[in-house]
Every structure is written in structure tokens, then in C-alpha cells.
Design goal:
Blueprint (H helix, E strand, L loop, with lengths): L1 H16 L1 H10 L5 E4 L7 H16 L6 E4 L12 H6 L5 E4 L23 H8 L2 H14 L1 E16 L14 E4 L3 H9 L3 E4 L2 H10 L4 E5 H6 L9 E3 L5 E9 H6 L2 H34 L4 E3 L3 H10 L1 H11 L1 H16 L2
Parallel strand pairs: 1-2, 1-3, 5-6, 5-7, 8-10
Antiparallel strand pairs: 3-9, 4-7, 4-8, 4-9
Helix pairs in contact: 3-11, 5-14, 6-14
The protein binds (2S)-2-hydroxy-2-methyl-3-oxobutanoic acid.
(2S)-2-hydroxy-2-methyl-3-oxobutanoic acid binds next to loops.
């Protein structure tokens, strides 16, 4: 037994003495390029977050780790709902995206997007900086196959349409609305009498332009950057119903290839990029109503009573998706949000 241990130790020492070539080999094993998928390009705050991240990593590793951004979810032919499974298959190395897009693969990562779960930035910040919430969330990401690094913000999603001012759930009756791949958003719309259609971002714009759909929902920052007002969208409702995180994460096999020193650099770069990205989103959020109105679009900002009516109209879907995502974690988020409200 002792013999065998000594043998192992001896082998270990032998490997250590020829450690330099082994180390050199590990370095050589780094890929020339790590592929990062983003749905939108750097002209949008989330795409910009990806760009900042890639640049910081390149600078701080002296080019050892070269993250290349593929906007338009082009690594999955624009089918953004395939990003997470493509990451698992080794097609995508780096994620900088909204978990709502991955709801068909990892439903539990959608806990932050339940309707009105985090109704303002105070609640949102409290949840996304709470160790109790984030440790559990990051464990879910790890179990799903990626190393989570940091969270940015995709922004509060607002409704726009070409038909009429939408001030109450009934106003949505019969409206054809494009939603992203999360069935939860579909259920929210159906619950209010609208007709939802699931569509990628790439398909959404032509569908709005041709009038195949009447409505869509996206942060106003996206509305502005994509010039959605030119697609016949004349009415906006700023109801702040859902604000996903922007998750920066690395595919596990890639993460494990990197030295601990490089892992540290990459994690810090993601944290710095996320901070800057949140800054961009918040700046735009503060001025979005004014800017969208400036384009001649009718923007409705709901009163407190109207806001409550939206919440009531989405209560059943909320309850179903609390269970459908991760009831325990959603309860934790609710508690943190409640506490943040107390501090308001
Ligand atoms: O497709 C969308 O609506 C977008 C850009 O917001 C997402 O990626 C979820």
C-alpha cells in the first residue's frame, strides 16, 4: 500500500520536474478564440456589455484569452432559445445573455422574470446582490453546465403596439403580440385575452413591419436602438413587468481549462463589465419615456391603481411559474424584495 503511494508520489514529482513542458502544453491547449453569443449587437446595452467584457479579458490576459462576440445569436442561426443547449454542446463558449431565452432548456433560471416579482430597481438590486439568492442561483447555473461570473441587467420590458393605448388588461383583447421563447410570457398574454406568437428577435422585426403581429415587449432601450417606432409601433405602456438579468457565464469544460489566475481575471472582468452595463441600462431607463415620446410615440405610464390591475391579472400565471421555475428560490426573492420595499 505504502509502496503504491510512494510510487504515485514519485510519479507526481517526476511530472512536476518536467512541469514546464506540461504547463506549456496547458497554455497551448487554450483555444485561439472563445465564442461568445449575444442576441443583440454592441449598439444595444446588453451587446455592449458583451463587448466590454471581451475587451477587458483580452487586455488583462495580454491576449491569452480571446473572446470573440457573435451578435444576432449567429452561432445558433438567430435561434436565441438554442443558446444554452449549444453552450452545452460546445458550440458556444461564453454566454452573455438573458435566461428568458433559455427557458426551454433551463426553466429554473427564469426566476427573476416572473411578472412584477421585482417591480423596481430597489427590489431588483436587493435580489441580485443578495448572497442568499445569488449563491443558490449560481449553483443552479453550475448544475446546468456553466460557470456563472456576474450579472448585468437586460432592463424592464415594456409593451408596445400598433393599435391603441393600452392602459388596462382588457385593452389587450385580440391583440397579436410577439413574445420571446418563454412560455410564461405567452401565458401572461393569453391571460389578458391577447394572442401571443413565439418568435426570435430576428423574425420579430419583419413581423412587426408587415403587420403580421401588432405588438411586442422589450426594454425601451431596445425599442430605441432597434428603432421599433419605424415598424408601426405607436403606443407604449411602461408597466415594468419583467426585468431579466444578463448572465455572464463560461461553459464548464472551457472554464476548467483555464489556470486559476486566468479564471480570476475573467471573473473580475465580467464583474466590471456587468457594472458598466448596468450603468448604461439605468441611464437609458431614466430618459427613455422622454426619448420615445420625442419620436412621436404615445407612452402611457400607469398609475398605481393601473399597476395593481396588471399585477392582479398576472397573479395566476405568477403562481404557476413560481412552481414551474423554482418555488424555494422564488420565495427567497420575494422575501428580499419585500424587505427592500420596507426600506423605501
Ligand atoms: O428577443 C428579444 O425580445 C430580446 C432581444 O429582448 C431577447 O433576447 C429576450
Amino acid at each position: 500500500m505504502l509502496h503504491r503511494r510512494q510510487l504515485i508520489l514519485a510519479t507526481g514529482t517526476a511530472a512536476a520536474t518536467v512541469g514546464l513542458p506540461r504547463f506549456a502544453h496547458a497554455q497551448a491547449a487554450y483555444k485561439a478564440e472563445y465564442k461568445m453569443s449575444t442576441v443583440v449587437p454592441p449598439a444595444f446595452a446588453w451587446g455592449k456589455g458583451g463587448e466590454i467584457f471581451g475587451n477587458l479579458v483580452r487586455e488583462r490576459t495580454g491576449g491569452r484569452i480571446n473572446i470573440k462576440q457573435y451578435p444576432g445569436a449567429s452561432l445558433v442561426q438567430g435561434q436565441q432559445d438554442r443558446e444554452f443547449s449549444a453552450m452545452r454542446q460546445g458550440i458556444i463558449d461564453v454566454l452573455c445573455g438573458a435566461p428568458i431565452n433559455w427557458s426551454g432548456t433551463v426553466r429554473e433560471l427564469g426566476v427573476f422574470t416572473l411578472p412584477f416579482i421585482l417591480p423596481d430597481h430597489k427590489a431588483w438590486d436587493a435580489a441580485t446582490t443578495s448572497p442568499a439568492v445569488m449563491d443558490e442561483y449560481f449553483d443552479l447555473v453550475r448544475k446546468a453546465g456553466a460557470e456563472p461570473l456576474a450579472v448585468g441587467e437586460t432592463g424592464y420590458r415594456q409593451l408596445s403596439n400598433s393599435k391603441r393605448a393600452v392602459k388596462a388588461p382588457d385593452d389587450l383583447k385580440g391583440i397579436k403580440v410577439r413574445v420571446v421563447g418563454s412560455p410564461m410570457y405567452g401565458e401572461i398574454m393569453t391571460g389578458m385575452g391577447a394572442n401571443p406568437t413565439f418568435m426570435s428577435w430576428a423574425d420579430a422585426q419583419p413581423a412587426l413591419a408587415s403587420g403580421a403581429v401588432d405588438a411586442q415587449e422589450n426594454p425601451l432601450e431596445v425599442f430605441l436602438a432597434a428603432k421599433i417606432h419605424t415598424l408601426g409601433q405607436k403606443y407604449v405602456t411602461k408597466w415594468n413587468y419583467s426585468n431579466d438579468i444578463l448572465l455572464f457565464a463560461i461553459a464548464q469544460p472551457v472554464w476548467q481549462q483555464w489556470t486559476p489566475a486566468d479564471q480570476k481575471i475573467v471573473r473580475e472582468a465580467a464583474q466590471d463589465a456587468a457594472k458598466q452595463q448596468i450603468g448604461l441600462v439605468r441611464k437609458l431607463f431614466a430618459e427613455d419615456v422622454e426619448r420615445v415620446r420625442g419620436l412621436g410615440v404615445d407612452v402611457h405610464v400607469p398609475t398605481a391603481a393601473e399597476q395593481q390591475a396588471w399585477q392582479i391579472a398576472t397573479r395566476r400565471v405568477y403562481a404557476r411559474w413560481k412552481v414551474g421555475t423554482h418555488a424555494g428560490l422564488v420565495s427567497k426573492i420575494e422575501q428580499v424584495a419585500e424587505k427592500a420595499r420596507g426600506k423605501a
